[in-house]
Structure formats: C-alpha cells, structure tokens
Design brief:
By secondary structure, the protein is an alpha+beta fold. Helices cover about 25% and strands about 30% of the residues.
Length: about 160
C-alpha cells in the first residue's frame, strides 16, 4: 500500500458534530474528544480524527513497520507524573523524525489506541512545519493499556510497543 502524501487529508474531511455530542463522548470516557476540545480544536475534528486513524490502521495492516528506517519511525514512549493529579499518568510520545515541508517528508499524525476498547484515545495531527522531533504529550488515567501509532507521509504506518500508563 502506498502512503498518502496529502497533508490536509486529516483535517479536510472533518464531519460536523455538535459540541454537545463531543462533550457527551468525553463524559463517556473518550480522552480524544476532551483532549481536542481542551487544546482548542473544533468539535468536528474529534469524531473525524478517530475515524481516520482507524482507517489508516485498517489500510496499512499488512505493511505496519515495514517501510523505512525503524530508528526514525518507531514511537518512543516515556511515562511520568502529572503534577497535582495522582489519577493520571503523563505520556510523552516522541519520534526522531524530520519535519520537512519542502520535500515533503514528515509525520502527519501520532495517536494512542486504547487496547481494551480499540478506540483512539488521544491523537495529534501535525503540520509539516511542526518543529522536529514530532511529539504527543498527554495525561491518561493510570492503568490504561495503550499502543502508540504514527503515520509518515512517505513511509506509512508505524506501531510502537503496547504499554500500561
């Protein structure tokens, strides 16, 4: 499967959803919806980004981690404390990859998939102009089992090791 090279792909297809619907999803346990809203994103992105990440996982299921240099594409995860909140674990996902808008060659998205439900828990869509190295940092409930993923516009889908926050 050839990787997509459309940097606007993730944002261009956002389906409109109501703010109430996004808030309802956040209340039901969706970290993605609440994280996007708190970061100032439009409510429409919450549902669409999750759908697009799942679509990439399905589309590239037979070629995960197979195109490009692993040392430049595998997500590195570190865990820490969230100051003042013992119920959350700080998760920092970083990948030592270039962000080159001229070539173009960059990481288009980084996300965490919750293993129990299979849902996208948290996602970050990155422009080619994002400073290198690309990263995603968030607080997640302790005990949550997650798998990091990223999508490179030239080298496709990459999946890291599953971990427990």
């Amino acid at each position: 499967m050839t990787p997509r090279n459309d940097s606007s792909n993730f944002e261009a297809n956002a389906a409109e959803v109501s703010r109430r619907g996004v808030i309802d999803n956040a209340i039901k346990g969706s970290l993605l919806a609440s994280a996007l809203l708190s970061a100032g994103a439009t409510p429409a992105l919450a549902a669409d980004i999750s759908k697009q990440m799942k679509s990439l996982e399905k589309e590239f299921k037979d070629s995960v981690n197979s195109n490009g240099a692993p040392e430049k594409h595998l997500p590195n995860v570190s865990l820490g404390k969230v100051p003042g909140n013992d119920a959350l674990t700080m998760v920092d996902v970083v990948v030592p990859h270039v962000m080159d808008p001229d070539k173009p060659h960059f990481i288009q998205a980084i996300w965490l998939k919750e293993e129990k439900s299979g849902d996208v828990a948290v996602a970050k869509v990155l422009p080619a102009t994002e400073p290198s190295p690309p990263s995603l940092k968030c607080g997640v409930p302790k005990g949550t089992k997650l798998t990091p993923y990223l999508y490179c516009n030239l080298h496709g889908l990459w999946k890291g090791d599953t971990f427990t926050a």
